[in-house]
């Protein structure tokens, strides 16, 4: 075998003695290229399909919450008695046989398909040119506008949750972990006692003192919402404060405040964002839950929980009323959860398998 | 261990005391007095105050209050059912709530474990994806969305199950509430079991067991599941919370005469004594269960105890 190779004659060509050009030989390793931290994170995030879908849904819902109220001529608290219990009717789509304002009703005489907008016998109902995209509720209010009004409340609640996490939870945990010793001990005992009180009880007692409403929900989030975040911040602080870069900073004369917020905080940003994202669905859920049992925002305001609670009373006769708020709430909760999952995986790929 | 136990018990007692102080203060500062009949003279009011011990200093009244609360004497209801002792109101309702809650925990744990094990064993297959989707949906959707969907489809359209709870057929009519209440439990247990199982399956001791020739159901149950189960105790705390809040809406939707619906009614009709009694019971239950969970955990897994003690130092 080897013989044949050695017996072959080597013929030198002219270009054998030229310098090899580096042009086409070198290439940049793109597969294992070193990348900046944020670029890496965002790349991992955008590769996660569920998270991106969640993000898009959230952007769409936020957009609708901003402009949705002005898309038709109705306001969220305007009651028109003659327009009670109207099923959804959308111009254009109605010709396809869906959303044409008809509804199937189970009455004592059997199943009836009727259309309140256009009378079958040709008589004038006065509603021929009236369109309610999602229908109206028992008081003749436009469900479309009310749904987006309710979405605003839910988004406000998520904003509060983020602020509470960032302001209270973060500082509490960082300070408790950084100073340690007696300060830490006292702060942790306080947090433990507070954590031992069920959230439900806090809200209930607050409602006795204050009136049900947005302020009460905001307060209850402020009282209990930050404990989870403070634990994470504290644990991270305990891990990081022994490291050399903190010592170096202190040697250079940095004050405590500077070390906590400028040296350590940027290093634990991933965990902070992840945890904040996870607290949003919980907060939205709290509001929707309170509204459902009648402790949410007062009427005529609308929140998703309140809309569901109202529509629940007549949901066997007019199921179309309950669908929009339930769907928006479900999409919102799912999206925030998927987004939070995606952000967690993006910041900490090790967690992905978990 | 002793130090850890003592610490946990002390914290629990402190929490309970804090709650009692808050509840007592709320009663103290609530506007109005029990004797605001205009016909009463000052002397009569003083007599009444003396009779009910309201003339005593705050500290003594507080201790009396604590004694009453701990012995289950919560006073009488004002509006819901006038002058009925709250303990009788609660006693008739507690078993119903506990039964449905217990059923939900049982169903949720069993189904959750099965789903989690399937997902872990068939890791990265369609089964895994399916379970993940179920658990994401279960965690994200409020239990009343499930309750509404179930009662509309299975209850109203198909008429398989009754729409409302009835004491004549307590089991049949508790099926839908149980399922809707257990969705969150199913989802979180499935998620957690999956994670833990995958971690355990990759560990050295499982490889050792496999190389010794242990396989099949024996390997899964005795070697994998058993070790994966330990951390699942940590999910218990959020589950209790979800059961408590869940019971409020579920009991409202299916009109179940339980504690949750009593609390909702009490809040809506400003029946302070009932609200405070239920708030106290919920807190006591929560604190008690948390204490048991923490102690159990300390016994089962010494690493946690050590870590907790260290981080407290």
TrEMBL record, chain A:
Chief localization: membrane
Iron-sulfur keyword on record: no
CDD domains associated with the record: TM_PBP2
InterPro entries, A to Z: BP-dependent_transpt_permease, MetI-like, MetI-like_sf, OppC_N
Keyword Transmembrane helix annotated: yes
Highest taxon listed in the record's lineage: Bacteria
Keyword annotations of the record: Cell membrane, Membrane, Peptide transport, Protein transport, Transmembrane, Transmembrane helix, Transport
Subcellular localization, as worded in the UniProt entry: Cell membrane
Domain called ABC transmembrane type-1: residue spans: 151-340
Transmembrane regions: 51-69, 153-178, 190-208, 214-233, 288-308, 320-340
SUPFAM superfamilies: MetI-like (SSF161098)
Membrane topology: Multi-pass membrane protein
Family under the similarity heading: Belongs to the binding-protein-dependent transport system permease family. OppBC subfamily.
Protein name as it appears in the record: ABC transporter permease
Organism: Fusibacter paucivorans
UniProt lineage: Bacteria, Bacillati, Bacillota, Clostridia, Eubacteriales
From TrEMBL, chain B:
Coiled coil feature spans: none
Biological source species: Fusibacter paucivorans
Locations listed in the record: Cell membrane
Positions of transmembrane segments: 9-27, 100-121, 133-154, 174-193, 228-254, 274-300
Record key words, sorted: Cell membrane, Membrane, Transmembrane, Transmembrane helix, Transport
Presence of the UniProt keyword Cell membrane in the record: yes
Membrane topology (UniProt): Multi-pass membrane protein
Protein family (similarity comment): Belongs to the binding-protein-dependent transport system permease family.
Domain ABC transmembrane type-1: residue ranges: 94-293
InterPro entries in the cross-refs: BPD_transp_1_N (IPR045621), MetI-like (IPR000515), MetI-like_sf (IPR035906)
Keyword match Cell membrane: yes
Superkingdom per UniProt: Bacteria
Protein name per its UniProtKB record: ABC transporter permease
Pfam families (UniProt xref): BPD_transp_1, BPD_transp_1_N
